[in-house]
Design brief:
With 275 residues, this protein is an alpha/beta fold. Helix content is 41%, strand content 11%. The protein is built from eleven helices and seven strands. Strands 3-4-2-5-6-1-7 form a seven-stranded parallel sheet, sandwiched between helices. Helix 2 packs parallel to helix 3, helix 3 crosses helix 4 and helix 6 crosses helix 8. The two termini are 44 Å apart. The mean pLDDT is 94. The structure holds adenosine monophosphate. Adenosine monophosphate (AMP) binds next to helix 3.
């Protein structure tokens, strides 16, 4: 890794030209894995990745590259939780594909005139980016046909599920063909997300990348998985191992903050609560 360039990927030359305009020099870690994978594999994919990792280009560039422009039917459906994200994704994709003639990317989201979106779909949209509610509505009105799509991408799946889009997602997925590639991206792998992957995906490849946090490049993150009953002991041990420690313990409830601080004070650590 690190030496890969976008030229190494088998992407359409129009796309390479567009990302050159954007000054994308080096693929991000998720792009290094996801782009070559999507270009050659039809396997389902689960990606644990947050915003800021370059995931939009990771799924967007290969999807655009694989789009057949002679064909006006919808080939890629991207679902995301909010209108803002929907607009952002389609803006990014339009940017990446600005040199590809005949490609149409249509965003569909609630809170905007549906007839405008219906007209846009009627012209033929190879790529549709939608929020679940509006997407379902357009399918029901027979204005959006997804029976023949090649791939469906669920972006920010955890957000979509916590916003209550589970049933809309299930309706939409039930209208997709059996033979298709399903990609799911989520910042967190919650139980609800796992359920969707179990029910609607199979033979999945999983990738996970950490968010690049430029503000804290000198910070080393460590994560210990412990039983709830051992948590306090772990805090003490970590503190004892780092005598100069100066830290914050985050708790879920006010009671817990008091509880932890009291125990620490009782054990002669300098501690107090903020709640
Ligand atoms: P995303 O995680 O998809 O929201 O992307 C975060 C930001 O990184 C966006 O503004 C992208 O335009 C930008 N970006 C994505 N890939 C690259 C890359 N390979 N090099 C530089 N910037 C990138």
């Amino acid at each position: 890794t690190g030496k890969t360039t976008f030229q190494n990927f088998s992407l359409k030359k129009e796309i390479l030209k567009a990302i050159k305009d954007l000054n994308f020099i080096k693929p991000t870690p998720i792009q290094e894995i996801v782009i070559p994978f999507l270009v050659k594999s039809k396997q389902d994919l689960i990606g644990t990745a947050q915003t800021g990792t370059g995931k939009t280009a990771a799924f967007g560039l290969p999807s655009l590259s694989l789009t057949s422009v002679e064909n006006t039917k919808t080939q890629t459906l991207i679902l995301c939780p909010t209108r803002e994200l929907c607009i952002q994704i389609s803006k990014d994709l339009k940017n990446y594909s600005k040199y590809i003639k005949g490609i149409n990317i249509v965003p569909v989201y609630g809170g905007a005139k549906i007839d405008v979106q219906m007209r846009a779909l009627k012209k033929g949209a190879q790529v549709v980016v939608g929020t679940p509610g509006r997407t379902k509505d357009l399918i029901k009105r027979k204005k959006l046909y997804i029976e023949f799509i090649d791939r469906v991408i669920l972006d920010e799946a955890d957000e979509m599920l916590s916003m209550g889009f589970k049933e809309d997602l299930e309706f939409i997925l039930s209208k997709t063909p059996k033979e298709k590639q399903t990609l799911l991206f989520s910042a967190t792998m919650t139980k609800k997300v796992r359920e969707v992957t179990k029910n609607y995906m199979n033979d999945t490849k999983e990738v996970s990348v950490a968010r690049k946090n430029i503000a804290s490049e000198n910070v080393n993150h460590v994560n210990y998985i412990v039983q709830a009953r051992d948590r306090y002991e772990v805090i003490k041990r970590v503190s004892d191992m780092n005598p100069d420690i100066y830290g914050i313990v985050f708790c879920r409830t006010r009671r817990e903050t008091k509880d932890v601080a009291n125990k620490l004070m009782h054990d002669n650590y300098n501690a107090d609560t903020l709640h």
